[in-house]
Specification:
binds flavin-adenine dinucleotide, DNA Cyclobutane Dipyrimidine Photolyase, subunit A, domain 3, Rossmann fold
């Protein structure tokens, strides 16, 4: 009888889960575990806690949903708080498990967790946090282009998107292995207030992820107009809103890719359907950039090693986070983020540029704040995009400033968004 732990991370799903499939193929029983690492939820260098109520609520729902998925297969989720190496060592001892299988991740802290665990137990890493597998890229990580267009052109020529893996029929687990949710002390969520103006009623978990995918592709066919609407600011369907489920792994990027391809085969492809996959390539790109540049992704000088340094003025920063800078379009976006844990891509670019270029603050203060607030927080996408806008990352034009007035005139020409969020 051999047992292995399946350590769920940003892959809160059973379908298209290579680590789970590999564990089931090699062992008689598996033990599904999630570990909330307090180091990633406690205070940031700027004082505030790294996860806020909106993000915690979304995670909590995602874990409950994963447990339901597992229960339907005869298994259950044990969720714990602690350092993964300690928790997994204890579980392995107590339950006589000899291996840990998990999704390999790309950002600094996640890689460190893997290193710590591998000192305690044999750890087997499997891919699929990205649409393309690292081994299918036409270059090694060291040669990864620093300009997205070069990356895109190369992968579009010849890197395949692999088929998705089926959901296992059953998940053999010891009979005494029962659901253990995180306690309120381990993941305090309180009662997050979600502003009624939120673009979508975001619920964590796979059921909601699949419903959203169905809605955006099949029910409304909104994807067919994505390229024209993607810079929108108000409403549920100007963009896919899939990012929170992609970040938590309730949905895999390969699943989205193949569903878009299925849509194209039935309704025909166009610039918009292509653009959705183009954006998923941006997501992949930042994952690979994180793997390549490691700690530099989080350094003030960025992956360019720039000498530029922003100020750390708390009062200015507080005006930014509270939507009280006096620039109405910026304030509207920041209020949306504060009240909902969501902001459009256009908004994110503008407020990030405003913090770095207009206020002259250390861009990392903004990146940490986004980590706390965004329900789709992903270290690679977040820090990669922040660097890009701040001019210390992968933007070949380096530090382009988004003029907030011009942006508002172009993307909120009737002022509806600015009025909506500055109403109180
Ligand atoms: C300063 C800043 C911080 C950001 N932080 C995050 C973050 O923490 N998590 C996150 O998922 N995205 C982040 N983004 C990228 C982008 O804003 C969001 O992915 C997008 O707004 C999510 O909305 P959507 O799902 O409707 O995207 P769509 O426009 O429908 O795009 C489809 C998918 O493509 C991916 N994608 C789109 N744009 C980008 C991009 N610029 N970079 C990486 N992936 C992209 C996302 O997975 C998205 O779900 C950030 C952007 C900026 C400018």
């Amino acid at each position: 009888m051999s047992r292995a732990i399946i350590w769920f991370r940003n892959d809160l799903r059973l379908a298209d889960n290579p680590a789970l499939i590999a564990a089931l193929a090699a062992h008689d029983e598996v033990l599904p575990v999630y570990v909330l690492d307090p180091r990633q939820h406690g205070p940031s260098p700027f004082g505030f806690e790294r996860s806020g109520p909106h993000r915690r609520k979304f995670l909590h729902e995602g874990l409950a949903d994963l447990d339901e998925q597992l229960l339907a297969k005869g298994s259950a989720l044990h969720a714990f708080a602690g350092q993964p190496a300690d928790v997994l060592r204890r579980v392995a001892r107590m339950w006589d498990a000899s291996f840990v299988y998990t999704q390999g991740l790309n950002a600094r802290e996640e890689v460190l967790q893997e290193l710590e665990v591998s000192r305690e137990l044999p750890l087997l890493l499997h891919g699929a946090s990205t649409m393309l597998l690292p081994g299918d890229l036409p270059f090694g990580l060291r040669e990864l282009p620093e300009v997205f267009t070069d990356f895109r052109k190369a992968v579009e020529k010849g890197s395949p998107v692999r088929d998705t893996l089926p959901e296992p029929v059953s998940i053999p687990t010891p009979r005494e292995w029962r659901t253990r949710p995180l306690t309120v002390e381990e993941l305090p969520i309180g009662k997050p207030r979600i502003d009624r103006r939120v673009v979508l009623d975001f619920q964590g978990g796979r059921a909601a992820a699949l419903a959203r995918l169905r809605h955006y592709l099949w029910d409304t066919r909104a994807i067919a107009f994505y390229k024209e609407t993607r810079n929108g600011l108000i409403g549920a369907d100007y963009s896919s809103k899939l990012s929170p489920w992609l970040a938590s792994g309730a949905l895999s990027p390969r699943e989205v890719f193949h569903e878009v391809k299925r849509f194209e085969s039935i309704h025909g492809g166009n610039e918009s359907t292509y653009w959705m996959i183009f954006e998923l390539l941006w997501r992949d790109y930042f994952q690979f950039i994180a793997a390549k540049h490691k700690s530099a992704l989080f350094a003030a000088g960025g992956i360019r090693g720039s000498a530029l340094r922003g100020k750390k003025e708390v009062e200015l920063f507080e005006r930014w986070i509270n939507g009280r800078t006096g620039q109405p379009f910026i304030d509207a976006n920041m209020r949306e983020l504060a009240g909902t844990g969501w902001m459009s891509n256009r908004g994110r670019q503008c407020v990030a540029s405003f913090l770095a270029h207009d206020l002259g603050l250390d861009w990392r203060m903004g990146a940490w704040w986004f980590e706390r607030k965004l329900i789709d927080y992903d270290p690679c996408s977040n820090w990669g995009n922040w660097q890009y806008v701040a001019g210390v990352g992968n933007d070949p034009r380096q530090g382009r400033r988004f003029d907030p007035e011009r942006q508002a005139n172009t993307y909120d020409s009737d002022g509806a968004f600015t009025r909506l969020w500055n109403a109180d």
